[in-house]
Design a protein that fits this description.
The protein is mainly alpha-helical. Helix content is 70%, strand content 11%. It has one helix and two strands; from the N terminus they run αββ. The protein has a two-stranded antiparallel sheet with strand order 1-2. Strand 1 and strand 2 form a beta hairpin. It is rod-shaped, with a radius of gyration of 19 Å. The termini are far apart.
Length: 53
């Protein structure tokens, strides 16, 4: 395997990790938003994605 090919594979690997981390962050951030609303004793409107106090 050549050095250029190794660098290309490493780049693809790093990009995949960044994409997966970004998607995970988005998912956990939205869940935390809902949890904070419900923990405060409010209702969360999933259709409009807002916390109703």
């Amino acid at each position: 395997m050549t050095s250029a090919r190794k660098q290309k594979l490493l780049l693809y690997f790093v990009l995949m990790i960044v994409l997966i981390a970004g998607a995970s962050f988005q998912h956990f951030y939205s869940n935390a938003k809902v949890d904070n609303c419900l923990d405060a004793g409010h209702e969360y409107d999933f259709e409009r994605q807002i916390c109703i106090e």
